[in-house]
Structure formats: structure tokens, C-alpha cells
Amino acid sequence: MTLTFRDPELPPLSCAVGRGRVLELPLITWLAVVWVLLWGNLSWANVITGFVVAVVLCLVFPLPSVDLRLRLHPLGIVRLVVHLLWDMYTSGLKVSRQMFDSRPYRAAVLAVPLRCRSDLMLTATAVAVSNVPDGSVVEVRRSNATLFVHILEADDPDAADRARRSVWRMEELTVRAFGDRDEIARVSRAPRPEGDGR
């Protein structure tokens, strides 16, 4: 078993143990804290046992490596926040109107293929879309970067197109706020047609 601490490929405060196993100190510390909280008794025995259990868990059940590649673009963040606030306001009004409307709405789940590929951007886009009252993500398919979004007005022929454009707009704003150069180049291109493979 070899320990490698200064590998630029690894996250900070982590070490490689053998092949394909990475021990991250923040995760191990958090698992040890949870262990002590579960026992409800702060003692040296519980702390040491917590660290041992955390290391064993990380070695036996390794988490997949996630390349964050997070970049902060201040102007993009401002645009995203303004768009989110406006979208939350207008969508809240729309949902309130629908609640008091007597006619029934036919709901549907819409598959929206995204252009971004990183786990971070896929997750951030899904969270941003779910923050808006009018759109809720029911599934994220990582294998082909597709969000499945619940829409209420499925009987309206233009509702699906509006929902797709809204998700793609949110994806573009999110990537331009936090993405790297490659992801920004991806969202600059037109979205791929529905059903198009990766």
C-alpha cells in the first residue's frame, strides 16, 4: 500500500492509497463526527473508532471521482441571480393563477437533453431549474446528460417548447456563472435535438 500526498490530480487534503482508492481528509473527518454523534458520547475511544470506521468505509466503498472544475464568473453570477429571482417571481404568479383556475391541467414529464457534460454543471442546472416554482426536476440521467422536468400545461402544444427553452436558458446562465472554458463553449452552441445521442 503506497500513500501519495502531493498528486496534482487529487483534490486538496487527500491521498491515494494503492490503485483507484483516494482518502479525503474532510470526508473522513465528517464521517468520524457523524460516528461520534451517533454514539452520543465524546470520548477518545469513539473518536479513534470513528476515524478507523471512516477509513474502512472509504476504502471498501470508494466514491466515484468528480472533477469539479469550478470557476467563478462574477458577471455571470449576477445574471444568474437576477434571472432566477425574476423567474421565481413570474413562475410563482403563474402557479398561483393555476391554483385558482377551475379548468384541469394535464401534467407531463419532459426529457430535456443538456449540452453540459460535467457532473457539477449538470447538478447545478438541475438545482437551478428546481428552484423555480413552475419547474421541478423528477430525474437526472447522468449517462446522457438529460433532465426530466415535470410540466403542468401539457395540453398546450407550445408548453413543451417553452419548458425546453427555459431549461436550456437556465443551463446556459449556470454554466456562464460557474463553468470552465470548455463548458461555456458547449452551451454557446445550439441545443441538440430531442432524442439525439450523446
TrEMBL record:
The chain crosses the membrane at residues 21-38, 44-63. The keyword Transmembrane applies. Keywords: Cell membrane, Membrane, Transmembrane, Transmembrane helix. It comes from the Bacteria. It is a multi-pass membrane protein. InterPro entries: Cation_antiport_E. Pfam families: MNHE. Its main location: membrane. It is found in: Cell membrane. Belongs to the CPA3 antiporters (TC 2.A.63) subunit E family. This is Na+/H+ antiporter subunit E. It comes from Streptomyces amakusaensis. The lineage of its organism: Bacteria, Bacillati, Actinomycetota, Actinomycetes, Kitasatosporales.
